Amino acid sequence: MNIDDKKRLRTKTIIFLAVTIALFAALMIIGTFWDLQISKSLTKNSLAAGEYYSSDLFALECEAYGSTPIWLAFCFAFALLYVFVTRLKVPTWLKVVLCAVCVVAAVFVSYKAIIEIFEYLAEQNGVQELIDVGAVKGSALFIGVIVFALVFLLTVRVKLDRKTLVKVALVLLCSCALYLVVSVIKTPVGRVRFRTINTLGDESLFTPWYVVNGKRTFVGLPGDCCKSFPSGHTFSAGMIFLLLLLPDLFDWANKRWLKIVLWACCGAYVVCVAVSRIIAGAHYLTDVTVGGFLALWGVTLFREIFIKDFAHFKSLKKE
Q1: Residues whose CB is less than 8 angstroms from the CB of residue 256 and which lie 6 or more positions away in sequence, other chains included
Q2: What is the pTM of this model?
Q3: pLDDT 10s digits, 29-71
């Protein structure tokens, strides 16, 4: 990399960090002071007094389908590892075992993507008991297998060397695994969802995002009624930022206009899911901000580690 290229990369890196950190800070400051007021405003026409579930179609659709990117990312990761294994020079029996593991894992996450959608739809319509019906689980598995097959058919056509296959799979797996951070934080923080407050009619239950309330729940309400911070849905939706890897891998995608389109579409998708979660009364502004930026920075970090070989970090060093 010559001096001019390094300067351009350094400028891009500084701009990215400055913009994302400034935007994150601004949203967190706004949310810290006006989380409750923003939720009241956005749920005005979607949550009837005393109701737990929103009646807003946009919010309901995003709740059911918004987190799909994380499951698809997992599926593509296992598909890439499958292709990698088929190119290994190892004993046939070992290759068969490893390929089988990849296939089973891919089918499982595809099934999880579909059954999660079914669970949300059932919950929204008050028919949760249907999820335990064998025919429903069978349908979810059938659709999941179709999704898995489409992902594998697309992946096996990818012309990447073995080293790159593993690197991309690691970016996908490590980025998605950050969801564990979301899960670990939710329970001890114990932040009451706005729709819980709406159902109980007690605004005194509201606490800022930085207050640790401990594990808690309320009789008659879902077990996650006090798991508002941070937003798992927004984080899961944020896995769509993995599409930003395309220009790194394929010449046809390495075009300025396409990069702009990818950034715009990925950002718009995450913003839509984030706003829908506030409208649904499931999260506050600070919840979705942390969830969304954790996803963005996670994808960026692991892309930097496995694909870019720390090129952006290195560009920040003074000569």
Answers
A1: none
A2: 0.94
A3: 999 999 999 999 999 989 999 999 998 999 999 999 999 999 9
The token duo for 189 is: 């923080």
| CA 114 to each of CA 51, 64, 142, 201, 241: distance values in angstroms, whole numbers, following the listed order | 27, 10, 9, 34, 21
Tell whether the torsion through CA atoms of 132, 138, 140 and 145 is positive or negative. positive
Q: Could you report the per-residue pLDDT of 71-91, keeping only the tens digit for each?
A: 999 999 999 999 999 989 889
Helices (runs of H) and strands (runs of E) counted in the chain: 13, 0
Mean pLDDT of the chain: 93
For 54, counting Cβ atoms within 10 Å of its Cβ (0-12 exposed, 13-18 middle, 19+ buried), the class is: buried
Q: Residue 24 and residue 297: Cα distance in Å, rounded? A: 11
* Collapsed DSSP state (helix, strand, coil) of residue 12: helix
Nearest to 282 by CA among 118, 84, 39: 39
Contact 111, 72 (CB under 8 A): no
In three-state secondary structure terms, 48 is coil
**How many other CB atoms are there within 10 angstroms of residue 130's CB atom?**
14
| Angle between helix 162-177 and helix 68-86 axes, rounded to 10 deg | 150
Specify whether the backbone of 160 is left (phi greater than 0), alpha (psi in -120 to 50) or beta: beta
Integer Rg of the chain from CA: 21
Q: What is the Cα–Cα distance from 176 to 89, expressed in whole angstroms?
A: 29
